[in-house]
Design brief:
Blueprint lengths: L4 E3 L2 E3 L5 E6 L9 E7 L6 E6 L6 E3 L7 E6 L4 E6 L8 E8 L8 H4 L4 E2 L5 E5 L2
Parallel strand pairs: 2-11
Antiparallel strand pairs: 1-3, 3-8, 4-5, 4-9, 5-6, 7-8, 9-10, 9-11
Length: 129
């Protein structure tokens, strides 16, 4: 069973930065669109960002656009989420997953989360002063 491994979470102050990593033992991540999601206590899971496999296109939720950047290192088989100018409302457990139905993100991370699988355990991000 494939399961992604997220890391890099922690405590950050408002305005600070963190970089999350997503590794995938057992699969080649460049073959998949990869999405980042988050879930805050008492809230629904939210799609945050996606990196396409078929081209260089990416997608972002409006709440993180201009602050978060998704990237890939195919040599390391890893996808990253650089989070800058963090806000308390970014506090959540962050997960990554692969889209099993398409190689180009479109708006799938925001509207079609059921297309994603290989969920990891997540990494906690807490933004607080």
């Amino acid at each position: 069973q494939v399961q992604f491994v997220e890391s890099g979470g922690g405590l950050a102050r408002p305005g600070g930065s963190l970089r999350l990593s997503c590794a995938a033992p057992g699969i080649t991540m460049r073959d998949y669109a990869i999405g980042w999601f988050r879930q805050a206590p008492g809230k629904e899971r939210e799609g945050v960002s996606c990196s396409s496999a078929s081209d260089s296109s990416t997608d972002y939720a409006d709440s993180v656009k201009g602050r978060f950047t998704i990237s890939r290192d195919n040599a390391k088989n890893t996808v990253y989420l650089q989070m800058n100018n963090l806000k308390p409302e970014d506090t959540a457990v962050y997960f990554c997953a692969a889209n099993l139905m398409r190689r180009r993100c479109g708006d799938s991370v925001r509207t079609l989360s059921y297309e994603y699988d290989y969920w990891g355990q997540g990494t906690q991000v807490t933004v607080s002063s």
